[in-house]
Design a protein that fits this description.
The two termini are 20 Å apart. Helix 3 links the parallel strand 3 and strand 4. The protein has one domain: TIM Barrel. It has 285 residues and is an alpha/beta fold.
Length: 285
Amino acid sequence: MALITPFKNGKLDEQALERMVQWHIDNGTSAIVPAGTTGECPTLSHEEHKRTVQLVAEVAKGRVPVLAGAGSNNPVEAVELSQAAEKAGADGLLEVAGYYNRPNQDGLYAHFKLVHEETSLPIIVYNVPGRVIVDVKPQTLARLARLPRIAGIKDATGDLERPWLERGLISREDFTWLSGNDSTQVSYNVAGGVGCISVTANIAPRQVAEVQRLCAEGKWEEARKAQDRLMTLHKLMFKEPSPAPAKYAASLLGLCTPEVRLPILPVSDGLKVEIRKAMQDLELI
């Protein structure tokens, strides 16, 4: 689950963060990803970023894995954040490709390899070309998979051909394929995925966990029906720039304020109505 970062009056709301982590553990979330894209990592200071990971790890206490967002387009910064996450007690790292710099495939490989060599935690490669422009191609991922601690991929390409192609190139049985898109999570699992780093799970953790349980048990028809019920909420989470919709929805649950940081704006009044209705339809509120 891609955790939102709660703010209050412009500052990290540590009490809300601690409550949220416990709430997720109580409601079936199987792993937590703090300080990622949904956690507004681009507008967190280094101090806030490190503190967020530290608090999540302290509250989780090993009950669920903590996969710390630690990526940067600057590999030196990525190493710093990764080493801090390891010291804080994270179980693994989520590392994004080199946005803005626009490296070629060899440059992407070198970026991830450097972080791999300077850390000792398992690494999930985050491929999200819609945000970072560059794309970790299947052949490059296969090269990376030969490094012992490159443990898997978070695929937010929306290309459901990808896991089929990648599995044909990667023979490791312990390599993990995770969807980065809620709306494709069932389809991705059919193609070999084993989970989703979900935004919707910030609001509906039990329901998202149920979809994944049904997939794991091969109950595809039931998983499809469960996904059908969630699709409206999935789409609303990205109808306006994320994570504003997720934060507004979380505020309706009393988890945190809806506060976001510029350049992300609060959700419009019209979207508030849609989110509230979708949550009522799912009996979340």
